[in-house]
Design goal:
Helix content is about 75%, strand content about 0%. Helix 1 crosses helix 3. The N and C termini lie far apart (about 40 Å).
Length: about 70
């Protein structure tokens, strides 16, 4: 039983982290394609910088996602 818990708990934590990351991407994907289209192929950090530059124009969901992640 203990082995089972050591195998399942990390899997559940990993799954929830991936799910949260996907929700963040979903919240900002429209804003990214709207304001940062030219940078989408340049990597996440470049897109993040672009989103920060346009913070005042972002959707409330995207603004909240950035704030939730310390951006």
């Amino acid at each position: 039983m203990t082995r089972f818990l050591f195998a399942v708990v990390p899997l559940v934590l990993l799954t929830s982290a991936v799910s949260a990351q996907q929700q963040g991407r979903d919240a900002c994907s429209r804003d990214a394609s709207r304001f940062c289209r030219a940078h989408l192929s340049e990597g996440d950090q470049v897109v993040l910088a672009c989103l920060k530059e346009h913070r005042s124009r972002l959707s409330k969901a995207c603004q909240q996602t950035l704030a939730d992640h310390g951006q």
